[in-house]
Specification:
heterotrimer; A alpha/beta; B mainly alpha; C mainly alpha; A: alpha/beta; D-Maltodextrin-Binding Protein, domain 2; six-stranded mixed sheet; five-stranded mixed sheet; C: mainly alpha; two-stranded antiparallel ribbon; about 75% helix; globular
Chain lengths: ~350, ~150, ~500
């Protein structure tokens, strides 16, 4: 017991010292002892102390650290911190396919200090799942910072090299072309639904867990076609194992400049998954404006643009009234697709 | 008493399993066909296995009905039961009164319950442990430990 | 390639990088050793920490945490019967018995050696074999993964063959529990009972933390007054040369199993350790020892789980497909540091990648020493009175399960699993099938559906795939094995 006592006493001294250090470097709330996304702990505040923001801002990312959503937010937050003069911490609240984090956000205080990551389909989560307490009106969009396109890729085995061939082969019979998705009700799935409508065909729907799985299946020939995001597909495209057919954005993407858009190939079709930062509904307008301006400035920063591009994120900006309108229009669009998909 | 209780425990477990399987099966209502197949197969297999288990338990129970061994187990399991409740309360109050206070309280109560009388340990351990956990998580790992609705 | 390796070597031995390897190992083993914490968590929480560092240093730190974390789980597994991470669950089955026999030191040392060997072999595979193995990785499609999952479930049969009915019952019910949440095809939330937290399913790690830690805590509570039987000292950390040579086959076989499982996406150290343990039991000349203190079991389990680390990086670096949960986090970390996995990675970022590859080897070699140090220190755990140990474990389990999703719900899951686990242990229900079923269940269903959709019309075509046929044969044999053995045993008993 004697050694135990000694250990305990020294450990207590150490822990008291540590708590003292932590306590001293605390500012207002107990959550402030976290480091920001770049590991710094600067707290330069504006000269006008009464202006928002006065303390650390938290962004809830409802998906895991290191994933596509997480990376995209961390990039932006890094530059937004400088604009806002406060640290931004990223809080990965995972679980429930993203619903846990969003539920937390919808119930948070609408003072602008808690924000969240949001994507195309989330406003309709209550249609897909039971027990969801939030809906389209629970959130106030602040900025859309990315509109990620998908790349339509085909296996070498399938012999498809462009949109025309894809349409022809798919039209032969129902389900003659297998299409791999990254998950049910994901942006991949919605792309499939709207593409089927556009080309008037029906694909054989094969569901994988994540775009990477679908891409591998195309690479080894098991699946004919897949519609991954750029970041999911790029490794295999560079390796030459899959054939890129088209990209679903309006214009070509700098990271993969040789891939033509669907539009270029004669079909008036685009499909992107947009990524946004939102706040709980009821956040005061002035606060929303300050946040939107800061994020917009961060977005315009050429360093951010470069970092985003390198990680496969297709940058696109939307703020203000245009965004508010788009948010509702998009909600309706997906609501209709889900309802027709469910029946 | 032990054998007697043990065998009837087998039967209780078997019946509980059936109840759980039924609770699951009730959910098949709205499920689309593609999502149903696999779980139906699994639940059916579980039910069949459970049937064997029930059959075997009843058979054993009947065989050993006369064997009874006296042992005062009620006190024995009482301790376990109380400890389980203690842990449950700890978890329940974590987000009500905050991580720090709940953990300190839990450690103290647990040590006392488990008959630790050493004053040094009783005071230092809760403080060190909780401080370490708090420091580690909020400073390094950026996990935000619950800070309690009632207090903060 | 040779020049790149030399470049890597010179880079790794730069003081800061080397420091990161060692620091990573120390952190990793600690995370692995604390019940409730895991290698995945260790990597996850240090990723943001690593953003300020140069890519090579960051990668080495994370690699050290990964390898150390997978190893660390051994220590409490052997000393107190609670696996520090799910990957050491089979070790826990054997470890506690060894400690009671007074052979804790020997077991720890063997486990450390095993982990080092497994890790080194997988690093070599990674360093020299990555391109070739990557081709194999690409050929692993839905049929192969489905077969691996089915094979894995046969391990359940084998592990519970003394208690088949209960083992199978636990297995099937766990498979049912694994179906909670969105189904892979339609995304329909199954069995959520109106709770949105269940839409993504029950978190496996929380269940495993609960089911492996809490019952042990409660059992320690039962025996609180019988402290006199408790082994208080770590036995000598010594082994003989014979201990190593007689187990050479085990070391090698387990390493191969580990690397193979690492290459298969989504199957990680937890699954590898069970598979390897099972194979060791099958190949052993004294299988009855398993469950009562078998060093072969410990070696198999620990060697395999560390051999996964290098293997899991192969598909990650070459195809951007993570081979295990911590590897998935590596993916994100690499992208943030500007390293994009893919075939061009090895040429475009040769310096960073080869630093990582060579560093991986260095890390696994150093792991032996770091492990040894920890083992010596860990002996003190046995000195701690059970009352304190119980309390601390509960606190760790609580905070560990909370930090997965930052959600109290997971803590509740952990708690309920713990109680159920205790009831199971007291009534002779094996707990290992729970781990296997929860880990393999989703893989099984997802791939079965894919196979049905893509190959449904003509299943026989699957046999033209070499990998599939190999796995298929393994599986059939694996299922038949316990029955054949059982029949042989019955024949002997009847005589």
């Amino acid at each position: 017991m004697k050694t135990l006592k000694r250990i305990l006493v020294s450990a207590t001294i150490i822990s008291i010292l540590m708590t003292a250090i932590v306590g001293c470097s605390n500012s207002t709330t107990s959550n402030d002892t976290s480091t920001n996304s770049t590991g710094n702990e600067t707290n330069e505040t504006d000269s006008a102390k009464n202006e928002f923001p006065e303390k650390t801002i938290e962004i809830i990312v409802p998906f895991g650290a290191g994933g596509g959503a997480d990376i995209s937010v961390r990039n932006l937050a890094k530059y937004a911190e400088k604009e806002l003069g406060q640290t931004i911490i990223i809080n990965n609240v995972t679980g429930g396919s993203g619903t846990v984090g969003l539920t937390q956000l919808s119930q948070a205080k609408a003072d602008g200090y808690k924000l969240g990551y949001f994507a195309s389909t989330n406003s309709n989560d209550n249609l897909l799942f039971e027990g969801i307490t939030y809906d389209v009106d629970s959130f106030k969009p602040i900025i859309i910072f990315s509109a990620d396109p998908h790349i339509i890729v085909a296996s070498k085995k399938s012999g498809i090299t462009n949109m025309e061939e894809l349409k022809a082969k798919a039209a032969e019979n129902e389900e003659s072309v297998s299409l791999g998705l990254g998950g049910a009700w994901t942006s991949h799935d919605f792309l499939r639904m709207s593409l089927e409508e556009e080309l008037d065909v029906k694909f054989k729907r094969v569901v994988y867990q994540g775009g990477a799985g679908a891409v591998t299946a195309v690479a080894n020939g098991d699946c004919d076609v897949a519609v991954p995001f750029v970041s999911e597909a790029i490794a295999q495209i560079e390796a030459g194992n899959i054939v890129p057919i088209a990209i679903t954005s309006d214009e070509r993407f700098e990271l993969v400049p040789d891939i033509p858009t669907i539009k270029e190939q004669g079909f008036d079709y685009t499909h992107v998954m947009w990524r946004a930062i939102v706040a709980p509904a009821g956040t005061p307008d002035e606060v929303v404006e300050i946040l939107a301006d800061a994020f917009e400035a961060a977005y315009e920063n050429p360093e951010y643009q470069e970092a985003a591009k390198e990680s496969g994120v297709f940058s696109k900006l939307m703020v203000g009234e245009e965004l508010d309108n788009f948010y509702l229009v998009n909600h309706e669009k997906y609501r209709r697709m889900i309802e027709s998909g469910i029946e | 008493m032990v054998n007697f209780k043990k065998l009837s425990v087998d039967i209780i477990i078997s019946i509980s399993i059936f109840l759980i399987l039924i609770a699951f099966a009730l959910n098949f209502g709205g499920m689309p066909a593609e999502a149903k197949g696999y779980p139906i197969f699994l639940i059916t297999c579980s039910a069949i296995l459970n049937l064997f288990y029930l059959y075997r338990s009843i058979k054993n129970y009947k065989k050993n009905e006369n064997k009874t061994i006296k042992k005062d187990i009620s006190k024995f399991y009482k301790k376990i039961f109380i400890y389980i409740i203690m842990i449950g309360i700890y978890i329940f109050v974590i987000d009500k009164i905050g991580y720090i206070i709940s953990t300190i309280l839990f450690i103290i109560i647990s040590l006392l319950f488990l008959k630790v009388r050493n004053k040094v340990v009783l005071i230092l351990l809760p403080i060190i442990t909780t401080a370490l956990m708090y420091f580690l998580f909020t400073k390094f790992l950026m996990v935000i430990l619950p800070s309690g609705i009632w207090l903060f | 390639m040779f020049e790149s390796i030399l470049l890597g070597i010179s880079n790794v031995f730069e003081p800061f990088n080397l420091l990161m390897c060692i620091v990573g190992l120390f952190i990793g083993v600690l995370f692995g050793a604390l019940p409730g914490f895991s290698a995945t968590m260790g990597v996850a929480v240090f990723i943001p920490f690593s953003y300020v560092m140069e890519p090579e240093a960051a990668m080495l730190l994370l690699a050290g945490i990964y390898c150390g974390g997978v190893y660390g789980g051994t220590i409490p597994a052997i000393l107190i019967g609670i696996p520090g991470t799910p990957a050491s669950a089979p070790t826990a089955l054997e470890g506690q018995a060894m400690t009671k026999k007074g052979e804790s030191g020997k077991s720890l040392l063997l486990a450390t050696i095993g982990s080092t060997i497994g890790g080194v072999i997988s690093s070599l595979a990674l360093l020299f074999g990555a391109p070739a193995l990557a081709i194999i990785a690409m050929k692993v499609g839905s049929p192969e993964q489905a077969m691996v999952a089915i094979f894995g479930l046969s391990v359940v049969c084998m592990l519970s063959y003394d208690n088949m009915l209960k083992g199978l019952l636990v297995g099937f019910i766990s498979l049912v529990v694994a179906t909670i949440g969105q189904d892979p095809v339609m995304g329909y939330p199954r069995f959520t009972f109106g709770m949105y937290q269940l839409i993504g399913g029950i978190d496996v790690v929380s269940v495993l933390i609960g089911i492996f830690s809490i019952p042990q805590v409660l059992i320690m509570l039962e025996n609180l007054n019988k402290d006199d039987n408790k082994v208080n000292k770590l036995s000598k950390l010594k082994i003989t040369a014979k201990d190593i040579t007689s187990n050479i086959v085990n070391f090698i076989r387990s390493s191969i199993i580990g690397v193979a499982i690492g290459i298969i996406p989504a199957a990680g150290p937890d699954i590898a350790s069970f598979f390897s343990y099972n194979e060791a039991k099958k190949a052993s000349k004294s299988p009855e020892k398993f469950g009562n203190g078998s060093e072969e079991g410990i070696i198999a389990s620990e060697t395999a789980n560390n051999a996964v680390t290098g293997g899991s990086l192969i598909p990650l670096l070459t195809l951007a497909i993570p081979g295990s949960a911590p590897a998935a986090l590596f993916l994100g970390a690499m992208i943030i540091h500007g390293l994009r996995p893919g075939p061009l990675l090895f040429t475009q970022n040769a310096k960073e990648i080869y630093t990582l590859l060579v560093g991986f080897l260095v890390i696994n070699i150093c792991m032996f020493f770091v492990g040894y140090i920890y083992c010596k220190m860990a002996g003190k755990i046995l000195l701690i009175p059970n009352a304190i140990l119980c309390t601390i474990i509960v606190v760790l389990a609580t905070v560990g399960s909370f930090s997965i999703n930052q959600n109290i719900f997971d803590v509740i899951v952990m708690y309920i699993s713990g109680i159920i686990g205790y009831i199971m242990v007291k009534n002779d229900f094996p707990t290992s099938p729970v781990a296997l079923a929860l880990l393999l269940g989703p893989i099984l269903e997802e791939n079965l559906v894919q196979v049905k959709t893509l190959f449904g019309d003509n299943l026989l075509i699957l046999f033209t795939r070499p990998l599939f046929t190999i796995f298929f044969c393994f599986t059939i044999f694996s299922y038949a094995f316990p029955f054949i053995k059982n029949m042989k045993r019955k024949k002997i008993v009847e005589r």
